[in-house]
Amino acid sequence: MPKRNFTTLPEFQANLHKEGATLVEFSGSKVPCILVSQKKYDELLQKLFGKQVRADTLLDIFYDGQDVFVDVQIKFLDTDFEENYLLYANDMLEFFEALAESGMMSLAPDSPAYTNSQNVFMIQLPKKDAAERALEIIRTNAKKHG
């Protein structure tokens, strides 16, 4: 998986994931959901349709005692599909709490239909403790801008 390196705040801001993220309801729990373009979502489904899917997920955390960014890297094993989603964690505490709690993440198209759970692609995290560590780093380092 490609590790991305950013060195300045403007570099981080320029590479933030544009479609956003939200929480979806799944089996009575809140699951973090990264929104992607409809085209990217359709491409994902085409590549994975009919296959037994395993995903490797890595949370690469960057912080400076004020701002926390998390580069979520997802690689679907046995395919050429891998993506990075850079998120600004200061504004997403609930997203990362749900990630640490559920050990699940989902992808959905960034259209109003994403709330329909049939349009959500679920991913089980290989290591839930990584999400728990990420949450601790975020809580310790993310300062709210007032």
Outline type: globular
The chain-level structural class is: alpha+beta
**Unreliable runs:** none
Structural domain count: 1
Q: Cα-atom Rg, whole angstroms?
A: 15 Å
The amount of beta strand, in percent, is 25-35%
Largest sheet: 4 strands, mixed
| Spatial gap, N to C terminus | 36 Å
* Beta-strand segment tally: 7
> Order of SSEs, N→C?
HEEHEEEHEEH
Main-sheet strand order equals 1-2-6-7
Count the DSSP helices: 4
Proportion in helices: 25-40%
How would you state the average pLDDT, rounded? 89
Descriptive tags:
146 residues; alpha+beta; 4-stranded mixed β-sheet; 3-stranded antiparallel β-sheet; 34% strand
Can you walk through the features of this model?
With 146 residues, the protein is an alpha+beta fold. It has one domain (9-138). Helix content is 28%, strand content 34%. It is built from four helices and seven strands; from the N terminus they run αββαβββαββα. The strands form two sheets. A four-stranded mixed β-sheet has the order 1-2-6-7. The longest helix has 14 residues, at 128-141.
Q: Outline of this structure?
A:
The chain has 146 residues and is of the alpha+beta class.
What is the fold's blueprint, element by element?
Blueprint: H1 9-14, E1 21-26, E2 29-36, H2 38-48, E3 55-63, E4 68-76, E5 82-88, H3 93-102, E6 104-109, E7 121-124, H4 128-141
Parallel strand pairs: 2-6
Antiparallel strand pairs: 1-2, 3-4, 4-5, 6-7
Helix pairs in contact: 3-4
